[in-house]
Amino acid sequence: MPILMAMFAASILEYETRLVDTVSDKALIAVPMVAAYVAGRLLEKPRLPPVGLAVIAGAVAIAATGEVGHLTVHSTLPALKSPGFDVSPEAILTVTVPMVVLVLGLGNVQSLGFMMAEGYRPPHNVVTGLIGGITVLNAVFGGHPASLARTGTAMVSGREAGAFESRYWAAFVSMVPALGVGLATGLVVSVINILPAAFIFAMAGLAILGPFQDAMARGFSGSLRLGCTVAFVVTLSSLTLHGIPPAFWALVAGIGASLLLERHELRRYWASAFAPAHPPIDHVAEAVDIRRQEAELADAVWQGVTDAAEP
After folding, report:
1. Which of 21, 99, 236, 283 is the most exposed place for a label (fewest CB within 10 A)?
2. Which domain-ending residue is among 205, 237, 257?
């Protein structure tokens, strides 16, 4: 898990570096957004989310500076079209394997890993099966493979989404505008195009800052720090083999480094990670009751021994 979190942190680092560049290049828009975000963090009120305050401050800054593009709407109703199919063994061998690695080995692993790090226990097999079924459905209409979005998952399941037991509301709330975007993509794209890039970059960097902080802490605050460092560096590299991006090879390199140079720490981590769960509560109560009875019996025996020893 620490190696996975280090890889995840490196994969979203670009959002934060882009935020810093935006603050430097477009201070009139980005600085008010950062200030509003900091104010929201200081207030610590659930009804005043820091990212929401940043969006409002950015909107005011855009209106004040007049950096708004011209709105030209090109929108049509969605139309279902099914592409032609041509089965090619070469394409299956060259495209399918990298796609499976990308979807299951990167998107799903990063998203599910982040949720597990936050304390959730997602049903891995069910999620993987659903994503596979949606991918088949998308293919019928020429769509891309389905996958869990690492940034979206981090936003709706991270600490800034609210209390642990009620963060699922963030997923429901974000689903409504997402459906609207799917039904009115042309209109939404036209509206987004009038916004300055500084606003988009600053909003994305601030929204992902909390998950990035958590991933860094979970990756580098415990054991396997060498493996985490290797995974972090490889993720930031341009290493691409057989069409598979560096994030996958970062996991391979990080685990390999820990196997070679941190084997004792890795063994202890695996032992704790795969240790059997605590017994059910009724078994615990039964064990406690047995221990109590044994203690009472021992006291009775000791009392009998001492009584017999008295003259």
Report:
1. 283
2. 205
